[in-house]
């Protein structure tokens, strides 16, 4: 398993404790090898998360750790983990550190992988009662918007999923820097399925996704999986252009033929404001894509690993 951690010192004891119990059960039942590992990825935490991880590793080799050179965000941390362990396991499950993902769902995931031959198993929340009203609704809206914009279908899941080794090999070939794994994994293909689980409360600490990060995550999600917003600009521009021809004709006729003085200050102002707004909106959307291109062409590394402790 790969578990990204950013300032999670408060939850690591409990998470490790519960994972230990789960692994022990699964090993006894012969479902996983005793060489199975939990790999914590420390995403440049400011607290004692890395110290906690090394402590876990010292005490029990079931726990391994990857230390990133700095904070790179949830998606990059997760990818760093997945790419590091890719060739060390038949399958990898990714999970949040805060125990919001239900550990008992792992059995069902392994079953789908082992016995039914699925390469990707998504853990999908069948309720989000424990998330705040605000988060639930903004997230719902986001996935609807993604669908409406024609991004390939993104199951409404967090990053709780199982991937087989060959699915991870496929993922490795996606060299993009703007990561939105929920949109990338479906692009990898292979047989996939979903298992449902009840999303719990964060065990301790607070969400590492404040509103600002949520919005930027949503924009990343949309612009990295869909070009529809750009096309919308084109069509809006086109319609506005047609309307302006009609309006121009009207102005010309009322002025030259009917001899009336045309339109006053208010209509002018309305037009200026409306088109000013529209222009800014359009430029903003284009800027978003250009920003993405800018980041992609630089080909910067998506993560840098400082340490990898694993025995
Ligand atoms: N996380 C991370 N780097 C970051 C932010 C978050 O590795 O910059 C991890 C975090 O430790 C957790 C997971 O990503 O394991 C999901 O974050 P969180 O639970 O805070 O998000 P929420 O559940 O509130 O959406
Ligand atoms: Mg959480």
UniProtKB/TrEMBL annotation:
It is found in: Membrane. It comes from the Bacteria. Coiled coil: none annotated. Keywords: Glycosyltransferase, Membrane, Transferase, Transmembrane, Transmembrane helix. CDD domains: DPM1_like_bac. GO terms for molecular function: glycosyltransferase activity. One of its GO terms (cellular component) is plasma membrane. The chain crosses the membrane at residues 232-253, 265-290. Pfam families: Glycos_transf_2. Its main location: membrane. Residues 2-169 form the Glycosyltransferase 2-like domain. It is a multi-pass membrane protein. This is Glycosyltransferase 2-like domain-containing protein. It comes from Lactococcus fujiensis JCM 16395. The lineage of its organism: Bacteria, Bacillati, Bacillota, Bacilli, Lactobacillales.
